[in-house]
């Protein structure tokens, strides 16, 4: 008859914090927390760094688009000059059919001089 006391563990308090019954009867919904609009706001330094990185990205994209557009404009201009040269050549060939070749050569030189003066 020894009086050995068995150590008992304290009962685990896993009871959720019940604050009473909801007025609307929807006890299965979680309780709402207080509205804190600045809770997830980042620091000014972080936002400034993000904005700087965003601006750098935008500048790079703009630069790439400008390069692409310049390349396209260069190709378009090359096509235009080719077409103009082809049309002029065809015009002079038609003139050669009607006129003497030497006279057409003189007209070519005269037109070149006039172009140089106009530009």
Brief account:
The protein has 119 residues and is mainly alpha-helical. It is built from two helices and no strands.
Describe this structure in words.
It is built from 2 helices and no strands. Helices cover 61% and strands 0% of the residues. It has helices at residues 44-98, 101-118. It is mainly α and 119 residues long. It is rod-shaped. The longest helix has 55 residues, at 44-98.
N to C succession of SSEs: HH
Coarse structural class: mainly alpha
Largest sheet features? none
Mean of residue pLDDT?
A: 86
Give a count of the beta strands, DSSP E runs of length 2 or more: 0
Low-confidence segments, given as residue ranges, are none
Helical residue percent?
55-70%
Number of helices: 2
What is the radius of gyration computed over CA atoms, rounded to a whole number of angstroms? 44 Å
Q: Approximately what portion of the residues adopt beta-strand conformation?
A: under 5%
What distance lies between the first and last C-alpha atoms, to the nearest angstrom?
126 Å
Subcellular location: Nucleus, Nucleolus
Main location: nucleus
Biased composition (Low complexity): 1-18
Biased composition (Basic and acidic residues): 79-99
């Amino acid at each position: 008859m020894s009086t050995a006391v068995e150590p008992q563990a304290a009962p685990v308090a896993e009871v959720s914090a019940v604050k009473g019954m909801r007025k609307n009867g929807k006890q299965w919904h979680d309780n709402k927390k207080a509205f804190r609009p600045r809770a997830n706001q980042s620091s000014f330094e972080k936002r400034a760094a993000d904005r700087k990185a965003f601006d750098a990205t935008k500048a790079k994209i703009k630069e790439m688009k400008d390069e692409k557009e310049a390349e396209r404009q260069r190709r378009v201009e090359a096509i235009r000059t080719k077409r103009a040269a082809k049309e002029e050549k065809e015009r002079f060939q038609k003139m050669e059919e009607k006129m003497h070749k030497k006279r057409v050569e003189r007209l070519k030189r005269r037109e070149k001089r006039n172009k140089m003066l106009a530009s």
